[in-house]
Amino acid sequence: MDDEGITLRLTHDQALVLSDWLHQVMFQSDDLEGIVRDRAVWSPIHAISGTLDTTLSEIFMADYAERLDAAKERLRVSMYGEAEASADAGGSAAERRSP
């Protein structure tokens, strides 16, 4: 068995959005068990989530929701363009974690 680590590269915006999503499915709902039925997969999910949480200082900032919304918008625009991004902007800032 090879235990050599793997480096995963994300942009800061990708990391912030992924961290928020992981937080929601892991700690604010029972979605993780419905999404991930094989508990072996939970180990890497927890490792990724923990790494993101210790790396991203924004999750503790008062303007976290605004920063998250801006990151999501930039990612939507980069993937879909201006018009498509505006149409896909779901989610409420009130649902996000706060300090």
What would your notes on this structure say?
- This protein is mainly alpha-helical and 99 residues long.
- It is built from 5 helices and no strands.
- It has helices spanning 12-27, 31-35, 42-55, 64-80, 82-87.
- The longest helix has 17 residues, at 64-80.
- The model is unreliable at 92-96 (pLDDT under 50).
> Which secondary-structure class do the elements indicate?
mainly alpha
Cα Rg: 15 Å
Task: Tell me, briefly, the overall form.
Answer: globular
- Low-pLDDT parts are 92-96
Number of helices: 5
Tell how many strands the DSSP assignment holds.
Answer: 0
Helix content: 55-70%
Strand content: under 5%
Gap from first CA to last CA = 40 Å
Q: Give the ordered list of helices and strands.
A: HHHHH
The largest sheet is:
none
Overall average pLDDT: 84
